[in-house]
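Input chain follows. Return structure tokens only.
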Amino acid sequence: MAGHVHSDAARPTGLWLDVNPDWKPGQWIGRQEPLGVLIDPIRWQVDAYVDQDKVHRLVNGGIVRFYPDGQPTPVTGRVIAIGSTRINQLTHRMLSSRYGGPLPTSAQETALVPTAPVFQVLVQLDAPLPSLRETRGHLKIEGKRRSLLADGATHVLAVLLRESGF
């Protein structure tokens, strides 16, 4: 599972980061020029992308450990939303294999389309990241327990029903 963490900047208070130190008050700035990044230093969320064969085991409220790239200590959190359909394009370029990320994508016009079916999962972290920056990382999400014996019996039953003509 791959993830991208960002600040939940919907609240009115926050910190401005990445502002160009050479800018002066009253200076004209191009309309495509980013002014900076507004973050909420308290509440952080992870946009995670989970393989199709694993998403059915996830539950809202499931415990999560997010391991930011380059940091050995995880940040804990909880699943707050699970996508019901596969995503058509990545929201964050940094997760695409074209930009050094873990998810293989193909470029279709301006969109980065995952080559394998993945579902988006939103995670609320219990604490902010020490770096206060967007970052990539990996997740371990607690899901429903499943029995390999029951899975095998279901598969055998499905084959028997298919072969018997029902």
